[in-house]
Amino acid sequence: MSAPPAQAGALAADAAFHAHADEHPPEIHYSSGAEPATLGMLLFIISELMLFMAFFTAYFFIRVVSGAEWPPPGKEIPVDVAAVNTAILLSSSLTMHWALTGIRNENRRALKAGLVTTLALGATFLSIQINEYVHLGWAPHDNAQGSIFYGLTGLHGAHVLVGLMLLTFATIRSFRGHYSAKAHRGVEVPGIYWHFVDIMWIFVFSSLYLL
């Protein structure tokens, strides 16, 4: 027995729809309006921000509530060196932006130069920070101030190291011909993380070295 005309028409329309969908699948719709990789990085940054806030809370508790001297009596913090290091790290945000702008305009030379320069500046910042630890003259276990200073700057240094690893992968891929104006998520997502690291250092530097 043949199917009723209405049912037959519905089946034919359904078959045509699925055949068309197989040829041209619909574009993915993201309810958040952001790519999964970008959204994931932003959520990760929010969680890391809360971690930094825990250290800042301990720092201000020691200074404001306990009234402890900062730095500890008889100790010094090299503000001038840290200021130069801050300028180096903030410059790396500009070179990161240069790299991303370059690939968005199909300028592969700018992409490579920007990533390599960002890597060099980030590595310089980290090496100066380590050298500061070596010559600081006080350790994390000496007092509460030392624990907070090394804890907060060390936490940031660990984030710089992770950022350098991400940028290294992006740099290697850029020299292998990856990325284009339409596909550069591998540069954009590490760039978001790197800008976060730079912004956090402004707060770390202002709180620990200037206040």
TrEMBL record:
Record keywords, A-Z: Cell membrane, Membrane, Transmembrane, Transmembrane helix
Any one GO biological process: aerobic electron transport chain
Cellular compartment(s): Cell membrane
Membrane topology: Multi-pass membrane protein
Main location group: membrane
Listed GO CC annotations: plasma membrane
GO molecular function: cytochrome-c oxidase activity
Record field: transmembrane: 39-62, 82-103, 110-128, 148-172, 192-210
EC number: 7.1.1.9
Domain Heme-copper oxidase subunit III family profile per the UniProt entry, residue ranges: 11-211
Catalysed reactions, semicolon-separated: 4 Fe(II)-[cytochrome c] + O2 + 8 H(+)(in) = 4 Fe(III)-[cytochrome c] + 2 H2O + 4 H(+)(out)
Pfam family, one: COX3
Family the UniProt entry places it in: Belongs to the cytochrome c oxidase subunit 3 family.
Name of protein: cytochrome-c oxidase
Organism lineage: Bacteria, Bacillati, Actinomycetota, Thermoleophilia, Thermoleophilales
